[in-house]
Specification:
Layout (H helix, E strand, L loop, with lengths): L3 H16 L3 E6 L5 H12 L4 E4 L2 H10 L14 E5 L3 H10 L3 E7 L4 E4 H9 L3 H32 L1
Antiparallel strand pairs: 1-3, 1-4, 2-3, 4-5
Helix pairs in contact: 1-3, 4-5
Length: about 160
């Protein structure tokens, strides 16, 4: 059990992390091995995110004090929180790829909460760079085909 001072420290630490965060991902770490949890910590650390285990009541106090309308006590399980300075879709990928169960998420900037299914969908999306590459490929393909047709036509004219 935490004493009153320790609880206040946890709440203030959570508030500091909320100030630096754009999104939150809630995870169930109950049946997670230490190895898997540490692997998650390492993978999200590269993105500037941190995972903290804060009691749901204390996290609810920090969220309420920051005027964030989300109740972490809706989750029945133990909750770990990933505080991320990135957009929610950027952080959902590494969390999804870990062996840890996602319970939900919250976009602080957009003031929108997401259930586990939506978070898993975000986690399965390719990275931004891959999507941009695919977009460029889609835009360039018709131009490339048109240039190929012109090239073949010019070769036909030269052969006559």
């Amino acid at each position: 059990m935490l004493n009153k001072t320790q609880k206040k420290e946890k709440v203030s630490e959570s508030k500091e992390l909320l100030d630096k965060s754009k999104s939150l991902v809630f995870i169930d770490f109950g049946k997670t091995t230490v190895k898997d949890f540490e692997a998650l910590r390492r993978s999200i650390k590269e993105l500037g995110a941190k995972v903290k285990v804060v009691k749901k009541k204390l996290l609810a106090i920090a969220l309420r004090d920051k005027k964030i309308d989300f109740d972490p006590e809706q989750f029945e399980l133990q909750v770990g929180t990933v505080f991320a300075p990135n957009e929610i879709y950027e952080i959902a990928g590494p969390v999804f790829k870990s062996k840890i169960k996602i319970l939900g998420g919250y976009d602080i900037a957009g003031k929108e909460s997401f259930d586990a299914a939506k978070m898993k969908m975000f986690g399965q999306l390719p990275s931004r760079e891959i999507l941009l590459g695919q977009l460029v490929g889609m835009i360039a393909a018709p131009i490339k085909m048109f240039l190929n047709v012109l090239d073949q036509k010019s070769k036909m004219v030269e052969n006559k």
